[in-house]
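Lab notebook: predicted structure, single chain.

Context: the supervisor wants predicted structures on file for every construct in the current expression panel, including those that have not yet been purified. This is the next one on the list. No modifications to the sequence; it matches the entry in the shared construct table.
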Amino acid sequence: MAIQSDMDLPLLLYEPKQPLDYESKRAYNLKVEATNVRSEPGSGGPFKDTATVKITVEDSDEPPVFSKPIYQLEVNENAPINTIIGTVTARDPDSTGSQVRYFIDRHTDLERQFNINVDDGKITLAKLLDRETDMWHNITVTATEVRNHSQISRAIVAIRVMDINDNAPEFATEYEAFLCENGKPGQVIQTVSAVDKDDPIQGHYFNYRLVPEMLNNPNFTIKNNQDNSISVLAKHDTFRRQKQEMYFLPIIVTDNGHPPMSSTNTLTIRVCGCSKDGIVQSCNVEAYVLPIGLSMGALIAILACIVLLLVIVVLFVTLRRHKNEPLIIKDDEDVRENIIRYDDEGGGEEDTEAFDIATLQNPDGINGYLPRKDIKPDLQFMPRAGQHSGPNGVDVDEFINVRLHEADNDPTAPPYDSIQIYGYEGRGSIAGSLSSLETTSSDSDQNYDYLREWGPRFRRLGELYSVGESDRET
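Prediction complete. Output recorded below exactly as produced.
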């Protein structure tokens, strides 16, 4: 704010040094003194004056305020659903004191594992929690004024999942121990340790023991190393691969939780052949049946070479077979690009080489065979010019139909009209020849009475000729 003089010149500019709070103090009274900087000699100056300035703080709508910026809550991992985890509180700092509603920002709780009461801010469990999956859950809670939903404030709620003993200990890894045939009694075969997903406050302590049916095991025993691990020891030196190649030793591991949890884990012990220094060389019984000096790795290499040679031979035979086969080039392009045009046509029925015309000739006059006499017409036919392919190719069906129509209507194209003389009537008929080609008698000299004697097949023919003779006589 500024204080103005009578000459409307700014004399003072006031700025607050800290935020003002209407709810804390609503008014301020300031005493302001104004002094002339210059004064004339003998005027009795400099002159000054004081004034009281009253500043009134106006109220503004502010968002709710949480009692804590960060809340830290704890819940056991075996807590049932709807368990109350904790409560968050917020208030409206305005004088009106609007009611506040609470919500969980679901972007921070995608799996919806928690719920909150909108009126009192109590956070409850919506799903079962597993500490071994997530130890901490950080969610954001919002507080909103009922009268003005735009006034929102946020607070972070960190929820720690407390551990309970709900996981049994187990081997740290899948152990596979190797035992030398020439080993000594009491030698350490394998050192075994365990892990537990739980995290007790007092730390882990594991107890190892053999299963009850293995307490009197004649082959192996265990020794506690006092550091949450044990050593597996051999009791004798008479282990042989031919007798037994593999042993299984079940061991029970128990933790110190409340209540304690335990699990049974099996240790696999394989009997191997070792050098004098105790270095494992072979653990398979099959090594005894192999030839002297031939190891399993060498046998695998030999088998791999044989398989490779067989593959090479098969490929060679396949290539030779394909080489002898004729090459067939298949063109998968558009059929319109592979059309070959021919302007000539076949001879059609003019070609008489397809059948034997001698069967229609007189066998008695083969030497006097008369060739066929074709008569070629004098009319000249102008062939139609072939169609040219358009931009999109030729319509094959239309092309064939046009050529077929032209060939059918072309009088100059073969086959021509032909005269064929057949002078052979046939042989073997009981009636003899009915032809008058080789007789010199005329129709008037013929007597057809014998037709009646030929039977019912020629009866009608005899009646016709008999009628003709009677008519001639009359």
